[in-house]
Amino acid sequence: MPATAYDAEKFFRGLTDxxxxxxxxxxxxxxxxxxxxxxxxxxxxxxxEIAKADGADYFVYPPTMSRSVLEQSGFLDNFPNxxxxxxxxxxxxxxxxxxxxxIHNGEDWERYENMTEMALNPASCYPVYPTFTGTVxxxxxxxxxxxxxxxxxxxxxxxxxxxxRMREFVRCGTPEQVVEWRDMWLERGLRLLQSLQLPVVAEVxxxxxxxxxxxxxxxxxxxxxxxxxxxxxMISEENRTALCSFNFHQDHFGQAFHIRTExxxxxNTACLGIGLERVVMALFQxxxxxxxxxxxxVHDKLWxxxxxxxx
Amino acid sequence: MPATAYDAEKFFRGLTDxxxxxxxxxxxxxxxxxxxxxxxxxxxxxxxEIAKADGADYFVYPPTMSRSVLEQSGFLDNFPNxxxxxxxxxxxxxxxxxxxxxIHNGEDWERYENMTEMALNPASCYPVYPTFTGTVxxxxxxxxxxxxxxxxxxxxxxxxxxxxRMREFVRCGTPEQVVEWRDMWLERGLRLLQSLQLPVVAEVxxxxxxxxxxxxxxxxxxxxxxxxxxxxxMISEENRTALCSFNFHQDHFGQAFHIRTExxxxxNTACLGIGLERVVMALFQxxxxxxxxxxxxVHDKLWxxxxxxxx
Lengths: 311, 311
Fold this sequence. Notes:
The structure is a homodimer of 311-residue chains.
Chain A: H1 8-17, E1 21-23, E2 30-33, H2 34-51, E3 57-60, E4 64-66, H3 67-73, H4 75-78, E5 85-88, H5 93-104, E6 114-120, E7 134-135, E8 141-150, E9 163-173, H6 175-195, E10 201-204, H7 211-223, E11 227-232, E12 241-250, H8 252-256, E13 259-260, E14 268-275, H9 276-287, H10 296-302
Parallel strand pairs in A: 3-8, 7-13
Antiparallel strand pairs in A: 1-2, 4-6, 5-6, 8-9, 9-14, 10-11, 11-12, 12-14
């Protein structure tokens, strides 16, 4: 029985009333309490466990990244509306006083801020590609990251956040290597979420490319089956919510960041991203707001007595 | 023996060569590898352990916060130069094309971005104060958070980061309650870091208030002993680096966020912040870049066989 019968407002209220999230007055931004975090950490440890034998290199990157890397990645051509850039004040004392006065008078103070060399990271994998620049070894590369990401998508749906954590795995190598790996993870991701008794399915998907040209890019992405998502009904039964996405980029990032395979060709990449907060919310949505009352198989899978593997 | 004899450049190169950090081309922004993260998580678990009996409520907030809360807090009056605000694009298709072209032509594209309702969180405790609004119970309140924070301080010193994690405890109540608590933690923090054989001392400190008026504020803060830091020599023997800070805010946040104690007075607050990356770096600096070669008492304290307490 879904906790909220697929109603975004009720789900948000339910999470808030249970103390699991703490609204801060900005849509898509909220605190998470210790129960929410415990579920998130334990699910993430489960991911470590099932991926351990693959031997991915683990890194954590800050929420802010190099703006020039974001420019180079092509993100701003395709999703200019979703990006966040970091601005700051670099004036002197008099201007600082004017800035302060503007704030106290409730005036706009946008003009006192200037663009910095940083942007907010829109997906965990963006800082990873520049580290592949050059020639990757015959067996390719495999990296995993857990970063805070930003998407400019203010919404009252609790599952559509502006700041959230994305656990990602990134594969780089020949087209065969990365597609085989992507397909393996699609199966694995589905099985993992099914083992937690979440009502998930895999489906072909597309990215929210901007504008009319974006519509064409999305159609082409869908036709070529470059993107799959594992989805669950969360705020509506018809419009399912993606918990994970599996993306084959072909040579997009290989070109952008000058990555080659041993045969001299431009390297291909694929990534899979797990929306950690969304998985946690899907568990609350499906099994109720109190983990103590979850089905015992689900509870035991997360609260096993042995310590979970670290990444 | 310090790993680098107090030299910022050598320390940065040492951390990079050991693979512990991954530079991304922006000063104060870098990736952390699995060894770095493991030490950070284990140290954070130690903090959980020593603080467990206090029963603090644990929350995690995103790296982005409500801009209006930051305005209300007074941060921008005192540290306008350190704040980061989030800007984004909200134009239509034609403007998006111009933005994209500007980027490809290597032109400035600042004018396409507009201020949003979000800022970067400059200290873990800022999202906490609005949750205290109203009358706090007789015993006061105690909250702990672990958030990514932002400070606009580009620097080649590895210990001076623009994005980093700050574990904080925040106490709210009568002046006596918060000062007693702050003093208890000053002792406790010092003992914790000494138990890891770090060459730490406690000293009176001040915040980097902006401008000439800021100089006066800093002097007054120092005279009233409102701020203490636990410091270690990291990039220089003379200019020690703060690993933790202990701050008595008097009624500053109580006034700003309308917090009262049961007797009807404006509530007082204090916080203590632990710079997690700085503690990790102090361990590498003091004991060397490979935790396997650390003194066994230090190693055992972090890699104990029993699972550490969760927050």
